[in-house]
């Protein structure tokens, strides 16, 4: 297995010879479409502000992930979907889903098999993580690749032991800015949304936990990177307790929407009621 499968790296024109075109895909790091754009983060390159003394342009938006210029190339391994093979998978989660959780988990699997993405709108404490375990198992057993991502490092670090315990036979990879673990190929990855900038057409399923959270919400760079990391026929699952209105409008035509108003104790959230008390000033 080529360790660069699903990754994209920045190389110079001199280094391209080390990546033959029969195995690797070469893309110019910047494309000219009336304007100049970065192919890693989709930033518009302001030529007057992002030019080196030698006349070469650079991207300042994603430079913390490695220098990228108009003379650079993005290199990735060519797709090998035909190599995906079904495999047996040991699912080691010992919990039990409630009736509603089991129904939603089944819908997530059906949606994936129907090539449809899903927004899971569920209250905090409803067990969203456990509800996605069956669809993760499905994708992995079909030879696919899964990523759980979140804008927040603490969420990724909290997800890791739970996912690792449920899929003990998998070498789960955890990636974030200052993580000690270095990149290695894995069929099951947990990472921050910023790490998506390092992937290209890598995952059959990307699950985004707390999609409404900062810094993903309202960040075109991270949204572009997420779509770039998804395989052409891949699917998305968005998890949120508080979807913004613009997200609901964005997905209503293309996503299935599953809802869970119940927390683990099987009671709905308390809805405040407005009561008018005429003599409040005398109370």
What does this structure look like?
Strand 10, helix 4 (220-229) and strand 11 (230-240) form a beta-alpha-beta unit. This protein starts with 8 loop residues before the first strand and ends in a 23-residue tail after the last strand. The protein has 283 residues and is α/β, with parallel strands linked by helices. The strands form 3 sheets. The protein has a 7-stranded parallel β-sheet with strand order 8-9-7-10-11-6-12. The longest helix is centred in the middle third of the chain and has 15 residues, at 99-113. The protein is built from 5 helices and 12 strands. The chain has 2 domains: 9-77, no CATH class; 98-260, P-loop containing nucleotide triphosphate hydrolases (Rossmann fold, 3-Layer(aba) Sandwich), CATH 3.40.50.300. It is 21% helix and 23% strand. It is globular, with a radius of gyration of 22 Å. The model has no long low-confidence stretch (mean pLDDT 92).
CATH topology of the largest domain: Rossmann fold
Q: For this entry, what is the oligomeric state of its chains?
A: single chain
How many helical elements? 5
What would you call the shape?
A: globular
Number of DSSP-assigned strands? 12
Cα radius of gyration in angstroms: 22 Å
Work out the strand percent: 15-25%
Distance between the termini: 74 Å
Quickly name the level 1 CATH class of the largest domain. Alpha Beta
Keywords: ATP-binding, DNA-binding, Helicase, Hydrolase, Nucleotide-binding
GO molecular function, one term: 3'-5' DNA helicase activity
Protein name: DEAD/DEAH box helicase
InterPro entries: DEAD/DEAH_box_helicase_dom, Helicase_ATP-bd, P-loop_NTPase
């Amino acid at each position: 297995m080529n360790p660069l499968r699903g990754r994209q790296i920045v190389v110079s024109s001199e280094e391209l010879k080390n990546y033959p075109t029969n195995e690797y895909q070469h893309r110019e790091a910047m494309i000219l479409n009336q304007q100049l754009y970065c192919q890693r983060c989709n930033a518009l390159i302001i030529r007057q502000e992002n030019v080196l003394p030698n006349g070469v342009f650079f991207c300042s938006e994603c430079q913390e992930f490695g220098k990228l210029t108009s003379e650079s190339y993005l290199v990735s391994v060519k797709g090998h979907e035909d190599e995906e093979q079904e495999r047996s998978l040991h699912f080691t989660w010992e919990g039990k889903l409630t009736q509603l959780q089991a129904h939603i988990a089944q819908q997530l699997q059906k949606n994936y098999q129907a090539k449809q993405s899903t927004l899971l709108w569920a209250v905090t404490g409803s067990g969203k993580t456990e509800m996605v375990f069956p669809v993760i198992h499905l994708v992995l057993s079909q030879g696919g690749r899964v990523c759980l991502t979140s804008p927040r490092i603490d969420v990724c670090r909290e997800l890791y032991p739970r996912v690792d315990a449920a899929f003990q036979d998998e070498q789960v990879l955890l990636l974030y800015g200052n993580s000690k673990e270095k990149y290695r190929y894995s069929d099951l990855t947990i990472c921050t949304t910023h790490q998506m900038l390092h992937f290209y057409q890598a995952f059959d399923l990307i699950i985004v936990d707390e999609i409404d959270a900062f810094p993903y919400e309202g960040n075109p760079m991270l949204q572009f990177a997420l779509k770039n990391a998804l395989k052409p026929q891949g699917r998305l699952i968005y998890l949120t307790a508080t979807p913004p209105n613009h997200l609901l409008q964005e997905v209503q035509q293309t996503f299935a929407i599953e809802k869970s108003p119940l927390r683990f104790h099987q009671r709905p959230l308390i809805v405040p009621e407005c009561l008018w008390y005429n003599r409040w000033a005398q109370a």
